[in-house]
TrEMBL record:
Source lineage: Bacteria, Bacillati, Bacillota, Bacilli, Bacillales
Organism: Cohnella hashimotonis
Pfam families xref list: Erythro_esteras
Name of the molecule in the record: Erythromycin esterase family protein
Length: 423
């Protein structure tokens, strides 16, 4: 065993305490509850325990610490349907599974699953009987919904009077020749000068801050129109950039998520507090990983830079188990085995001294946990368990997160059959 590895193992053992579930994580809730932004991660998009414990922590932050909304690594239009459901709108569905039918684009399982349905039903009950301004929302802050967001904007503005609809139609007509093919749009924008940046910026300006003057019953729908326009702008930038620079397209995406968060905070007022759900690679500070060497930033870093002292980041990890993922983009999801973590990795060291669930609060972490980089597993929506080595992100644990939850053995989440149930 290398000296650094031995020192890290000893430090992890000294800092780790048993994790018995969010219901017993008093110190964690107190610390996260002091922040304006509680960032709660996951080491995969297909692990049941990550979703369940994240939801249980969020419930406590909502009930005990007054957090106003959940913002997730999901698309605005689909999440807004779920937002309407949890706020009691039967038109969005009378059970959570109906409200989740909009998550029909791959990877469907990421949000259309039983774990999210259970949390949505809890949130609907929690919101029942509350004044509209006191209800807790559920929003998507990602940018992949270019076409869906354009559709929602046109639908919303068709009910209004004014010139905003014309701006939306011009943006839609600019994108229309590309047949809802993002790659085709990116190529056309980069190599043939057929970009739509001017049109989408003009549309966003038309819709920006309209919620401030909207009548009370229309305020959140006006906000939704603005956030859809922001998603269109972000997606246009993302797909145009992706053709040329992978690292910069990542940065476009994470900067977009932060901008969407800032607009949600403005809408909910100066005392608002947000819970953010996203992969560890987004919520943990990129400067504490090799992402920084590639010129990449992320949500955790950007929020820490602009809201110093008001951000609390919680990472997750597992030693072994099962997970839901696909073997290629757009491929059918399947349950896969997560093999035991590689020797010397963060997860393997935490398992080595005791194969049990653990919590690490890192505010007073020893120097070795602020200097040593340990491999830390990250599983995406595309996964090949047989090629594990490339899934480990070199991580300075106590610089990346404020707290870390280690679940020794985990299981695959339970997807809802969205297409089969609602076709």
């Amino acid at each position: 065993m290398r000296k650094n590895e031995f020192e890290a193992l000893q430090a992890l053992e000294r800092h780790a305490t048993p994790f018995l579930g969010a219901a017993y994580a008093e110190a964690l809730v107190e610390l996260a509850g002091e922040a304006k932004f509680a960032l709660i991660g996951e080491a995969s998009h297909g692990t049941s325990e990550f979703y369940v414990e994240r939801a249980e922590l969020s419930k406590r932050l909502i009930v005990e610490k007054g957090f106003k909304f959940i913002a997730v690594e999901g698309d605005w239009p689909s999440c807004y349907v779920l937002n309407r459901y949890v706020k009691g709108d039967d038109a969005a569905g009378t059970i959570a599974a109906e409200a989740l039918r909009d998550f029909a684009r791959w990877p469907t399982w990421m949000w259309a699953n039983r774990e999210i349905a259970a949390f949505a039903d809890w949130l609907r009950v929690y919101n029942d009987g509350k004044a509209e301004e006191d209800k807790v929302g559920f929003y998507g802050i990602d940018l992949y919904s270019l076409w869906e967001s354009m559709d929602e904007i046109l639908k919303y503005l068709a009910q209004k009077d004014g010139t905003d609809l014309e701006a939306a139609k011009r943006a839609f007509e600019c994108f229309e020749p590309h047949g809802r093919e993002e790659q085709q749009y990116g190529i056309a924008a980069n190599f043939y000068g057929e970009g739509c940046e001017t049109e989408v910026v003009a549309l966003l300006r038309k819709l920006q801050d309209k919620w401030q003057s909207a009548r009370s019953g229309d305020r959140e729908d006006a906000l939704a129109a603005e956030l859809n326009a922001l998603a269109v702008k972000g997606a246009e930038d993302y797909y145009r950039t992706m053709i040329r620079h992978d690292a910069e397209s990542w940065n476009v995406r994470d900067r977009h998520m932060v901008e969407a968060l800032e607009r949600l905070m403005a809408y909910h007022g100066p005392m608002a507090k947000a819970v953010v759900w996203a992969h560890n690679t987004h919520i943990g500070d990129a400067r504490a990983t090799d992402m920084a060497d590639e010129g990449m930033v992320n949500v955790g870093q950007l929020l820490r830079e602009t809201h110093d002292g008001d951000v609390y980041s919680i990472g997750f990890g597992t030693y072994e188990g099962t997970v839901i993922a696909g073997r290629g983009w757009g491929r059918p999801f399947e349950e896969m085995k997560v093999p035991p973590a590689q020797s010397g990795s963060l997860e393997e060291l935490l398992h080595r001294f005791e194969p049990a669930d653990k919590l690490l609060l890192l505010d007073d972490a020893e120097q070795v946990l602020r200097e040593s980089k340990l491999g830390h597993r990250a599983i995406g929506v595309v996964y090949h368990p047989e090629y594990e080595r490339g899934n480990y992100v070199p991580t300075t644990l106590a610089e990346r997160y404020d707290a870390f939850i280690f679940l020794d053995r985990t299981s695959a989440l339970a997807p809802l059959a969205v297409e089969a149930a609602f076709s």
